[in-house]
Batch of 3 targets.
Target 1
Amino acid sequence: MNSTARLETFSDGVFAIAATLLILEIRLPEGGSVTHGLVHAWPSYVAYATSFLTIGIIWVNHHTVLQQIGRVDRTFLFVNVVFLMIVAFSPFPTRVVAEHLRHGSKPAAFAYGLTFTLMAMSYGVMWFYAATRRRLIAEDADQRVVSGISRSFAPGWLIYGAATLSSLISAYLAVALYAAIALFYVVESSVFGRSEGD
Amino acid sequence: MNSTARLETFSDGVFAIAATLLILEIRLPEGGSVTHGLVHAWPSYVAYATSFLTIGIIWVNHHTVLQQIGRVDRTFLFVNVVFLMIVAFSPFPTRVVAEHLRHGSKPAAFAYGLTFTLMAMSYGVMWFYAATRRRLIAEDADQRVVSGISRSFAPGWLIYGAATLSSLISAYLAVALYAAIALFYVVESSVFGRSEGD
Amino acid sequence: MNSTARLETFSDGVFAIAATLLILEIRLPEGGSVTHGLVHAWPSYVAYATSFLTIGIIWVNHHTVLQQIGRVDRTFLFVNVVFLMIVAFSPFPTRVVAEHLRHGSKPAAFAYGLTFTLMAMSYGVMWFYAATRRRLIAEDADQRVVSGISRSFAPGWLIYGAATLSSLISAYLAVALYAAIALFYVVESSVFGRSEGD
Amino acid sequence: MNSTARLETFSDGVFAIAATLLILEIRLPEGGSVTHGLVHAWPSYVAYATSFLTIGIIWVNHHTVLQQIGRVDRTFLFVNVVFLMIVAFSPFPTRVVAEHLRHGSKPAAFAYGLTFTLMAMSYGVMWFYAATRRRLIAEDADQRVVSGISRSFAPGWLIYGAATLSSLISAYLAVALYAAIALFYVVESSVFGRSEGD
């Protein structure tokens, strides 16, 4: 197995595990009936779906990104490890939001958004390290595709950063924005991505 | 690694992790002797086995389904992510049933069945998106096999939907039906599937 | 990816996850100093090591077993799912032993051994289904190797069954036997298995 | 799939899962505001990052190591299982440190370092078993690379052993050393490793 294949396997493992562990953080609130608990756990469902879709989008993009990569070096591997460290960290702020969103906790929403922002930044660093002067780009990768990915990566952390700052106004607003960003990427990719073939 | 291979790896990861995480939800009831606890945990064993077999069946079917798929597009990938989100969600209702079935909780049994119904629906959407006008079907896939899968997918969510509604009558009835459906698919596949070769 | 490769991937996933989840069940006992807790958690370490080595041995054997398998059918896949269901169940009795061995709980040791016995039985069923009249054995598999595996599989569940019954006399005896069986397989495979090449 | 490929898959699985499970051990301290909890959980962040980076480094090295291995035997597989058992054990001392570092607990820091020391020792045994008289080294592996790995492996457990002993002086010192070792390996590999190609 070559380097890129093993990186894919390890990354896919972390994505799949982090996404699947999210559910362990959802608990019925103590006390009250089962129905009441199932209904009042709604912030948990929102947090679970937002985090799962975000990791899912990253997984799909990662897939497209790695197709452009021809070789990996140790710097790239370690930036990837830091990126994965942040992805694997996400169940923690997800739980904090799941537990405290119902009280409109701004720090919980801020920590959640900060995690997404750092995730977007480390993902961007990884890509621009590989793409700058086509350092690790495969010989046969189309430069238009590479430039397209660079363009789509650039605003990612700014969008998440702005949404994170909105948590200072309202926790609900911020979480709604995180969910909206995830849904936007899902729809955008589905509708516009189709013509790319892939 | 091509798109289908990575999708298989990620999906297999989620199936394996979701199935294996189920056990973390089984706890000895507080108080009482160890023997008493081991015996009175029976709803946990039923819920564990039902969920594990259901995910196992999906895994085996997914295997057959993906063999017919020649290529994937981003829409297919994202429908798959939503489907996996529901599979990865299943440990939560499994725990709710494991904890509350002993009191005959109908909402717990309903939430459990609703998860299976949504799982069957998203799985069906995924297949019919790929199979309609052979959109993503491999060139060399036998149309009879494709049609056979379509036929077997069609009633899935109706069966789970009906079983879910039975929880309004009795939680025990509903859970018995979920277990029976899982066992039916196991036996049916084992006995009738053998001649297909595979 | 062909059927055997995917089966390997899924099985490896369950083995790796079940083995790795075991650690989540180890907790410092409540109260007392950290040193006291670390020392008095010894039954947890014994249970963790025994379960991890047992799953590790199964993984190594599974590896050898699947090398003899030329094709899989749905019956084989589902027996494998049942076998994996029991492997994935093992963190539960491991925790029960980890928590209750210090009080010499015989039911805990019995449940732990019963899990190993059922694991050995379902593993045996899987193998003998495949090996009988070389139903699923690869064309080029050496019959002496196949027969050798059959001979080594035959006594497995009897050994675990006897060790399980010993828990009726003493929980410590039974757990010592489970650990000894695991160590025996490790040593036996290491020393005698070396000449097989592999 | 050949033996080395399956070993890679299983090992990657354990690395990915152990690294990702670490986050489950991070909890907000009970009581106090969310902000207070997020800030006072800093020992958890340090422990999480240290363990994740350490496992990440091992993963990257393991990758380089296995590229030199031409074949595996059962002894090598079982040493690997013991090594993985220690890697998979690491979330436990990580949690103990995360919970008790804030009180400067020396036993917690000692147990954490002991785990890293044993990890380094078993990793070394694995390598020297394979490398001695090129027992399992691939025909075409460059002896200079093999010797280079041997040289870099030799001091690993001594460095971790010394850092572990420093916990007898101060828990903070020891944990700072574990983090520094991890960062050193990250930087060293990134800067000096680049010229090696891959």
Target 2
Amino acid sequence: MQPFTNLARLSLNQATTQRWSLREAIEGCARAGIPAIGIWRDKLAEAGVAAAVRMVRDAGLHVSGVCRGGMFPAATAAERAARIDDNRRAIDEAAALGTDTLVLVSGGLPEGSRDIDGAREHVGEAIGRLVDHATASGVRMAIEPLHPMFCSDRCVVATLGQALALAAPYPASAVGVCVDTYHLWWDDTVWDQLRAHPDRIAAFQLADWITPLPAGVLTGRGLPGTGCVDLARFARAVADAGYRGWTEVEVFNDQEWARPGAEVLADVLEGLPS
Amino acid sequence: MQPFTNLARLSLNQATTQRWSLREAIEGCARAGIPAIGIWRDKLAEAGVAAAVRMVRDAGLHVSGVCRGGMFPAATAAERAARIDDNRRAIDEAAALGTDTLVLVSGGLPEGSRDIDGAREHVGEAIGRLVDHATASGVRMAIEPLHPMFCSDRCVVATLGQALALAAPYPASAVGVCVDTYHLWWDDTVWDQLRAHPDRIAAFQLADWITPLPAGVLTGRGLPGTGCVDLARFARAVADAGYRGWTEVEVFNDQEWARPGAEVLADVLEGLPS
């Protein structure tokens, strides 16, 4: 199996070309022959939802997903409620863009908290409060485990096992998981989990692991093929589990962001696993 | 249970006071009333093994463990054999210092490799080749899982589960695991694993998780009490599992290293979980 010998299911997550506006990213995908784009809400807000819908449609692009909902834990009930409301808007935006996927990054520990179990429980409750609205909107929530180095300040969901456990109470059609190679490559338990829960794979994202990590560790990912992750193994694993959705390339990297976007896209296509 | 209301089982891992020589660290422990020290091999080499043995004995200190063996994966058979030999010397040094514990940090992926499973297998084989010498020397190897952010370049053993699996083929008296709060705090599976494998807990190390992480991520740990890790929960978990060994404070932090060691030790004692 060679999942990337054609581009038919490839998507550019626009974080990879961070300095491009939404319009530039859409045009860049069209020029590169990439049929889909993963859209970030900050870029969407800049463009305006109605304008974004038109741009995507005019370019004939698919939207693989919206990044991101989540960020649920908070110190006060009022703040937690506000975050739920914001996630309802994220669902609406995904529906408007014609995608069936909203990626959720759960959020980190509330300031001063050491209660990691409690934070994860709160994430599960928040997702539960969104299930009806998401289902009615035709949008599936994809819980994304981030690498454990983000556990305190960005995402208390640090493993695929934790994401699957949070999704378990809800129908797989409403709540799935996002499998990102950068976040999961070190975890030997993912292979059995993917086999055991094929119906939960809602999104698949590619980035490579390179070192040294930069300060803050957010923007040190590698383009596919530049690091030590066996990306082809992940591609086979999700395909073998029956996943037929998009493969998003999502790379946060200061050096790549400083380059012309078209060159970055060319390198993305060059580095994909065959 | 309040594991730290007295200092009787506390040890200073000398990495916490990185700029102190072995002699200075030994004198610092004595002044602070800390009864044990975890010794690093680079500091030991500076002091000389025979001199170190005398210094420790003269100060009436215990040696909680030696850091570190391991660093097994390598690209060539000759290099791998050299690393096994070096680990035999580490075992000899631990025995000379009168400690029963050698902490193993497995090493990262060989240059250019994407074969994480293969690297972990190699770690297991290397440990197997050391078991007889360690047992004959009265030294137990403690496989330390490092945080997954170190998986590529420092330690392919990234979870307690992986460490336990590597230890499993060998007697618990010969091969155990090192439980370090900094490396494991994000993992919800550790609590059941500690309960299920109480006889494998060979070492217990404390550091706290703080952000933002510095470039390279090695030297960003927090003194106990300064971060988001529920240290008391870990202390209870290992105690409940029957662990009665040392609690080493091991903090890699550039800012702490720039401070006078005695002040750092005072803050260590202040921040311990009660």
Target 3
Amino acid sequence: MHFDLKHTDSGSKARAGEIHTDHGVIETPIFMPVGTAGTVKGVHQHELKSEINADIILGNTYHLFLRPGLEVLEEAGGLHKFMNWDLPILTDSGGYQVYSLSGSRKIQEEGVKFQSHINGSYHFFTPERAIDIQRTIGADIIMAFDECTPYPCEYNYAKRSMHMTHRWLKRCFEQMERTTPKYGYEQVLFPIVQGSVYKDLRKESAETIASHNAFGNAIGGLSVGEPAEELYEMTDLVCAVLPTDKPRYLMGVGTPENLLECIAMGIDMFDCVMPSRNARHGMLFTSEGIINIKNLKWEKDFSPLDPNGTSAVDHLYSKAYLRHLIKSNENLGIQIATIHNLAFYLDLVKQARKHILADTFVSWKNQMIPKLNHRL
Amino acid sequence: MHFDLKHTDSGSKARAGEIHTDHGVIETPIFMPVGTAGTVKGVHQHELKSEINADIILGNTYHLFLRPGLEVLEEAGGLHKFMNWDLPILTDSGGYQVYSLSGSRKIQEEGVKFQSHINGSYHFFTPERAIDIQRTIGADIIMAFDECTPYPCEYNYAKRSMHMTHRWLKRCFEQMERTTPKYGYEQVLFPIVQGSVYKDLRKESAETIASHNAFGNAIGGLSVGEPAEELYEMTDLVCAVLPTDKPRYLMGVGTPENLLECIAMGIDMFDCVMPSRNARHGMLFTSEGIINIKNLKWEKDFSPLDPNGTSAVDHLYSKAYLRHLIKSNENLGIQIATIHNLAFYLDLVKQARKHILADTFVSWKNQMIPKLNHRL
């Protein structure tokens, strides 16, 4: 695997690159649809390719570990084969989901004990175990086991937690060294910068992470409730420390505006449940602005879902029809809205890339953002 | 619109025909997927065509009347345009759904008063109103407003109800005469034979219905809980009375075995929620037998969903993957299972047609039925 930095925008720190994996090339900047349990909810794999133009999807280690479980995934030959998806996959380490189970987990130096949300069974994740599990799932890009601090987070807790994350990272790299890929293709580990919203901690963490000289680097612990200003300040600060010749992945971000602002700071990779989760509630990101399809104003609007949309659903179905489906709790409504929103996100980053390569990124971004935030 | 009877099987009363509508030709025998609220649950319209090979789908007047409502449907230019489906549609009259609301409806000679299951609002359906509503929905084939008696049903109730259904039928035909299609294409009315499981009533009803010389004729009030023997006995008896040169529609039937047995008696059209509803619970009808995909035996079965299946999902996804999705309550599991089951039903009737045309229907049916009923 290798990363080619193709171009850096003349007016910002935005970059266009290519991540070469054994499952194909990912053109950056990229957005990764979230496929929690081996499925992007409501979307067929062939639709991810033909309608959404996804280059890579994300799987959640915690969910896949519990269901279908490692035995099934290993016998299937890994997640790619299990779900019949032959393009790249990234998995998180399981950490983030485990911490969301606030009541039912306990964090110690050795690792994290937690209870399954499905059947209450007890499990123990360590940095080593997180690597082993991700070897079995078989994603192309795997993530270090970290603690994602909540927001707000007291300074001393954030500092102690960050240092533990750094010690865990060492154990992750050691476990990577001790093990090999199970299915004949390469896997790379991304370490994760933590440090909450404290500049000195973020800087220290970014320097520690950079020192590992990993294939790529991630920024975690943001988009957890902090104001956008802090998200941007931390991202900018960390990007200034992380090496320019490696891909940078900002975890769990964000709105279309967040994507464009963070691309301008040098972020190459994003994932977020927002486009798919909001779709399920009838909130659409479109070329003209944000639509709440449940509003009465769409009841008799028989115009196409998004006349400038890149996916077939944008032209096959009307706003009035989608409104009817969503109001009636029909799965097809969720399917249409999800395809639309994910296609919109992927089109946005592809447009961003085009403008980076043409050195027109900043003027394009500044013209896009008011449209993206406009509520129709 | 016209019906061409192409061939009657030499070894049974099974028939192959063609129903010509302004939205295309329906090759019979046919199965009609149920699209209750303007959507076959979880299935895109283009999948109905390319994966399932549906020639016609069914809409439910009761549901469409309540949501999206007649104003929206009329402004859209009818259901075809609203949902972007350009092949034929059949609508029921709303009667059946209204009776299922046992507690909240009242049947009188004039019509039926009922309460919406959505918001409790009161509505009144009469034979005339059922025609008007179906004119607005705009299906190619519309159904008479009848009372569908439950099972078991006391003889005197069944007789009185049947006579009221016959009087209502006259009012339906009169309303058809008084009104015209709204969207420039033809609509035909199918009357419905009732009479519960009483031979004399069924014979009388079939004779009354036949005397109207309608485009096609339907058999209602079956598949409501009676034993298969009674379903078959009534169907056979009624088919002997109904004219041979008109399509015969057996409403709400049934299992794959039911379809083949009733095709042998001269039925041309079927609809049933079974393939789609059972799919949502993980029950698959396959070329080798019935699968409950939730069973542990499929956990590590990575073979294709149905190696002989006609739809792409049969070959794209494994049994183990579908099991994981259904067990995890993932919408994609429902989508895959629904496409599979509906494609299986459509393939079954298309195979039946081929064997009718080749005069090999009976031997094929007898060889198929044990396979269809086999539990894997």
